[in-house]
């Protein structure tokens, strides 16, 4: 028999005779809001201290109200793009670089922003300030918008812009991880080179790796060349002290790996690296490298010590990997405010 509890969540979890099961009907918005607040009252620390929604037209501080319409085309058709910037020590790192890529992705996805670039930037900075978060991530989306459940966005009155600040701790990654070669087909270059919300292949690739006791996976393209990880770029140091990053023609050009390519010549000046380049690498060449790493916003570099149970180099965290990581981390902490870091004007 169904539970006699008046709690609709409990009722939905304890179903006996389906003929006796009664779905709770919320008779007012205040009743529903009370239920949502009941859920969040059990959370000691709010993971999402602030959200912006163009459908609301402002910043939301109540996590119970951080929702988007069910008929938003980003939800049921995947017609949306996104990007992320980090907040570190009260600064937004590479906000402009990420925002530029965001708008390029939107153009490829044929989504017109409801705001111009300067307004989008202002919203993001104000949102970070309202959150009071000094260390975390700022994630934002541009959607074809709510309107109906069809394929075409023609019935959507306007596109929608959403953003949320995530209270997230992160630090330099100094421990090595293991990876596998993914058997999940990688995205086409058209889909992979725009940062869109269609991440099911990425999710399946990550799950495949976890099933095999690895941290993540590596995609290899149809020609047998190294592509990228499920949501990060990958880089290699050869035995000749060359830093090599795969070409970006079929994969996303990560903002962090592009910054790495700008900073890495400092190690050439020190005589620690021979050169820095992009290029094609076969699986055999990549597995035979001296060092290997993932490159992404909150890592910033994650050492890889084994691939398909085969050690990379000596199977230990590479010295040059950590030297490169220090370059990026130092840039995140104390890089130029004119180009790399934006001070958040906290309220």
From TrEMBL:
Acetylation listed as a keyword: no
Catalytic activity: 4-amino-4-deoxychorismate = 4-aminobenzoate + pyruvate + H(+)
EC number annotated for this UniProt entry: 4.1.3.38
GO biological process, alphabetically ordered: amino acid biosynthetic process; folic acid biosynthetic process
Record GO terms (molecular function): 4-amino-4-deoxychorismate lyase activity; pyridoxal phosphate binding
Pfam families: Aminotran_4
Keyword Lyase (UniProt): yes
UniProt xrefs under InterPro entries: Aminodeoxychorismate_lyase_IV, Aminotrans_IV, Aminotransferase-like, BCAT-like_C, BCAT-like_N, Class-IV_PLP-Dep_Aminotrnsfr
Cofactor section: pyridoxal 5'-phosphate
Pathway membership, UniProt: Cofactor biosynthesis; tetrahydrofolate biosynthesis; 4-aminobenzoate from chorismate: step 2/2
Keyword terms: Folate biosynthesis, Lyase, Pyridoxal phosphate
Assembly and interaction partners: Homodimer.
Annotated PANTHER family: AMINO-ACID AMINOTRANSFERASE (PTHR42743), OS01G0238500 PROTEIN (PTHR42743:SF8)
UniProt family annotation: Belongs to the class-IV pyridoxal-phosphate-dependent aminotransferase family.
Name used for this protein in its record: aminodeoxychorismate lyase
Source organism per UniProt: Rubus argutus
Lineage per the UniProt record: Eukaryota, Viridiplantae, Streptophyta, Embryophyta, Tracheophyta
